[in-house]
Write a structure and sequence with these properties.
mainly beta; 3 domains; nine-stranded antiparallel β-sheet; eight-stranded antiparallel β-sheet; 5% helix
Length: 627
C-alpha cells in the first residue's frame, strides 16, 4: 500500500500547474489622472493611452476593426481599448445600465472585470499595469471598494492576451449594489435588451460581441475567488470558462442505496376516481417493529362505528384541532419510536401526532407537486392521511368529532357526512373514520361514503397515505387495492461522504471526512466498517459494480491509488481526519475521494440486491488553494 507522502507527490506531478486565484502581479502604477473636477484619482481617475506591447496587431477583437494597441485604464474597474488615441465615450462614476456597456456609436471597446463606481480609500490602494510577460497585458485594481461603502476592500485584475483571450482574476468580493463584469466591442453593439449571465456557468454570447454578468444583491458574486477566461468563440462573440476555483470540496455522484420503506401513498386526481377505489373499503396499519404491516380490506367499511355521544370540533377552513389524550383521560397512542399523547385533527381528513403539519404543502398536499415526489412525505410530524379539501361552511354539512370505547381501548375520529366543495353548491357528503387502538397502536382507515362530485373550484383530489415525522424517501405511488400488503420500516439511506473545512494550504488545514449511513457489518454486531480511497483522477459517469454483484453501486475514481484507514465505528457515522499541507500540495491541485463499507452479504439488504457485500458513497472533488 502506498504512503500518503507518495500519493501526494503523485498529485503534484499529475495536476496541472495551479495558482491562487488572485495574486497581485506587481508592475508599475497605471498613472491615473483625476477626470474633470472629480478628485482625487483614486475616486475618479483615468490613465492616458498605454501601449499594451502586444505588437503591431494589438489585441484582436472580432467585430471591432482596431488595431487595438493601447489601453486607457479607469479607476472604476474598466479598460477602454484604443489605437493610441484617447478613449471614445468613457463613462464617469462606473457603469449602471446595459447601454454603458454597449457604448454610443463609435465608442471604444471595453473590458471590465468589476465596473462600477469604485474608490480606493486605503493607503494600500493601487491600480497597476504589468507588461513583463510577452504577449500579455495585465491591470490590477488593489484594495478598492464601492463608493462610500465603508466595508470590505477587494482586489481584481484583467489580463489581455495577444491571442484575443481575456482573463479576470478575483479575490474575495463583497456584495454589490450594482456592478458589471464582461467584455464589449463597443460601438453600440447589440440592442440594449441583452441580459446578465453567470460567468461561472460557461455562457456563450454566440455572434454578439457583448457578454456580461451584473452584480447586485446581498450575497457575494459567484465569480469571487475565481479566475474566469473569456475566449473568442469563433462566431464573433465570447465564451466564459472558469479556470481557477477557490479551495473547496464538491460532492458528485451518488452512493448506494436509497431504499424507501417508511412513507407510502396513493393519489387520486379527482373525487370520482377516489370514490370508485375507496368507498366501502378500509385499510389497516398493524404495528410491526419500527413500522406497520399495511393491509387492504376490500369490504372493510363494515367496520365503521357510528359516533356515540361524540365530542365535536368547531370547524374552520383548512383548520386543525387539538385532542389532548392525557387531558381527556385516555392512554397515549403507540407509534413507531414512541407514543403520542396529543393528536392534531385536521378538517381536511388527516391526523398528525404534532402541531407542525398546519398550512402550505402539509395541509394542501394536492396543490403541491404530488407526482413524482410529493413533499407531504416530508411533513414535520407523523401523520395518517386521508386528505381531501372539505367544505366547513355548508349548513347541511356534518361534524368532525371523536368518541372513545374504553372496553376496546379504541378512539374513533369521524368525519360524519362532511360536505365537499362544488359548483354550484349542492349536497354531496362524505363519511370517513380513523380508528386508533390506544392499546396496540393499530390504526384503521375506513371510507364509508366518498362523494363523486368533481366540480369543486379548488380541485377534488384525495391523497391517502402515511408519513413519518420529518423527511422520508419517495417510494412512488401505490395502487392500494393491488400493491398491499406492504411492511413499512425506516428508510435505508445511501452512504454519503462529506468533507470540511475547505482545503486551504496556507500552510495547512486538517479536513475531516464524514461517512454517513455506514451499514452494520451484521445485524446486532454493533460494528460499522468503512474505508476511504483517494485518486488524482475521476470518471463520470462511474463504473457500475453490477458485474461484481453490487448493481446500482458505482466507482467514481479513476484508480484506487491510496487507501486511508477509517477507525471502526460503533455507529452508522465514521470519520477520518487528514492534514492538507503545502508540503505535499500546491495551489490548484485537484484530487478525488470516495468511501466504501463492508457488510455480511449473508444478511441481504432490504432491496434484495448486492451479493458483493460492499457499499460505496458518492465521491468528492477537492481543490486546494491558498485561500
Amino acid at each position: 500500500m502506498r504512503s500518503l507522502a507518495n500519493l501526494l507527490a503523485l498529485v503534484l506531478l499529475a495536476a496541472a500547474p495551479g495558482a491562487q486565484c488572485f495574486v497581485p502581479a506587481g508592475g508599475a502604477p497605471a498613472g491615473l489622472v483625476a477626470t474633470g473636477p472629480f478628485t482625487p484619482a483614486h475616486d475618479e481617475g483615468r490613465s492616458p493611452p498605454i501601449d499594451m506591447q502586444l505588437g503591431a496587431a494589438g489585441f484582436p477583437m472580432p467585430g471591432a476593426a482596431g488595431p487595438w494597441t493601447h489601453c486607457v485604464v479607469d479607476a472604476n474597474g474598466v479598460l477602454y481599448l484604443t489605437n493610441g488615441a484617447a478613449a471614445n465615450d468613457p463613462i464617469d462614476f462606473g457603469a449602471f445600465v446595459v447601454d454603458d456597456l454597449r457604448g454610443a456609436s463609435g465608442a471604444s471597446p471595453r473590458v471590465f472585470p468589476c465596473w462600477q463606481d469604485l474608490e480606493g480609500p486605503a493607503p494600500s490602494w493601487a491600480v497597476t499595469v504589468d507588461t513583463s510577460v510577452a504577449g500579455r497585458f495585465r491591470v490590477d485594481w488593489i484594495d478598492v471598494q464601492p463608493y462610500l461603502a465603508s466595508g470590505q476592500l477587494f482586489r481584481c485584475s484583467a489580463t489581455l492576451f495577444a491571442t484575443g483571450a481575456v482573463e479576470f482574476r478575483y479575490g474575495a468580493l463583497p456584495p454589490f449594489a450594482a456592478g458589471f463584469a464582461g467584455v464589449s466591442i463597443g460601438n453600440a453593439v447589440g440592442t440594449g435588451a441583452e441580459t446578465s449571465v453567470d460567468l461561472t456557468t460557461g455562457p456563450d454570447s454566440g455572434a454578439l460581441g457583448l457578454l456580461f454578468q451584473q452584480f447586485g444583491g446581498f450575497t457575494e458574486p459567484s465569480v469571487a475567488r475565481r479566475t474566469i477566461a473569456l475566449l473568442p468563440n469563433g462566431t464573433g462573440g465570447y465564451q466564459a470558462l472558469v479556470t481557477c476555483e477557490p479551495a473547496a470540496h464538491v460532492a458528485f455522484g451518488a452512493g448506494c442505496y436509497d431504499i424507501a420503506r417508511e412513507s407510502w401513498y396513493q393519489y387520486f386526481a379527482d373525487a370520482a376516481s377516489a370514490s370508485a377505489a375507496l368507498q366501502g373499503r378500509s385499510l389497516t396499519l398493524q404495528p410491526a417493529g419500527a413500522g406497520y404491516v399495511v393491509t387492504w380490506n376490500a369490504g372493510g367499511a363494515a367496520g365503521y362505528v357510528p359516533p356515540v355521544n361524540p365530542t365535536n370540533f368547531v370547524r374552520s377552513d383548512d383548520g386543525q384541532h387539538v385532542l389532548d389524550l392525557t387531558l381527556a383521560g385516555l392512554p397515549a397512542l403507540p407509534v413507531p419510536g414512541g407514543a403520542a399523547t396529543t393528536l392534531y385533527v385536521h378538517d381536511n381528513g388527516f391526523v398528525s401526532t404534532g402541531v407542525g403539519n398546519l398550512g402550505g404543502a402539509w395541509n394542501e398536499p394536492a396543490f403541491d407537486d404530488v407526482t413524482p415526489t410529493p413533499s407531504f412525505r416530508n411533513a414535520p410530524e407523523t401523520a395518517f392521511w386521508s386528505w381531501h379539501d372539505y367544505n366547513p361552511f355548508e349548513a347541511t354539512g356534518g361534524q368532525i368529532g371523536w368518541h372513545y370505547d374504553a372496553a376496546l381501548t379504541k378512539l374513533y375520529l369521524t368525519w360524519q357526512g362532511v360536505e365537499n366543495h362544488s359548483t354550484p353548491t349542492a349536497a354531496n357528503p362524505s363519511t370517513i373514520q380513523f380508528q386508533f387502538d390506544l392499546g396496540s397502536g393499530q390504526v384503521d382507515y375506513i371510507w364509508s361514503a366518498i362523494d363523486t362530485d368533481t366540480t369543486s373550484p379548488f380541485g377534488s383530489a384525495h391523497l391517502i397515505g402515511y408519513s413519518p415525522g420529518g423527511a422520508s424517501l419517495d417510494p412512488g405511488p401505490l395502487d392500494l387495492a393491488l400493491d398491499l400488503p406492504i411492511v413499512s420500516a425506516p428508510d435505508v439511506r445511501a452512504m454519503a461522504l462529506s468533507v470540511a473545512p475547505a482545503p486551504v494550504i496556507n500552510p495547512s488545514t486538517t479536513v475531516t471526512y464524514t461517512i454517513a449511513n455506514v451499514p452494520e457489518f451484521a445485524p446486532g454486531s454493533g460494528t460499522h466498517i468503512a474505508t476511504l480511497f483517494l485518486s488524482v483522477g475521476a470518471q463520470v459517469p462511474g463504473i457500475d459494480l453490477a458485474a461484481f454483484g453490487a448493481p446500482g453501486c458505482s466507482v467514481f475514481l479513476a484508480a484506487l491509488e491510496l487507501n486511508l484507514d477509517v477507525p471502526i465505528s460503533a455507529t452508522s457515522t465514521a470519520t477520518r481526519s487528514v492534514a492538507i499541507s503545502n508540503v505535499y500540495f500546491a495551489p490548484g491541485d485537484v484530487f478525488f475521494t470516495q468511501a466504501a463499507a463492508l457488510f455480511d452479504a449473508a444478511f441481504p439488504l432490504p432491496n434484495g440486491q448486492n451479493a458483493f457485500g460492499v457499499l460505496v458513497s458518492n465521491a468528492v472533488q477537492s481543490t486546494t488553494q491558498l485561500q
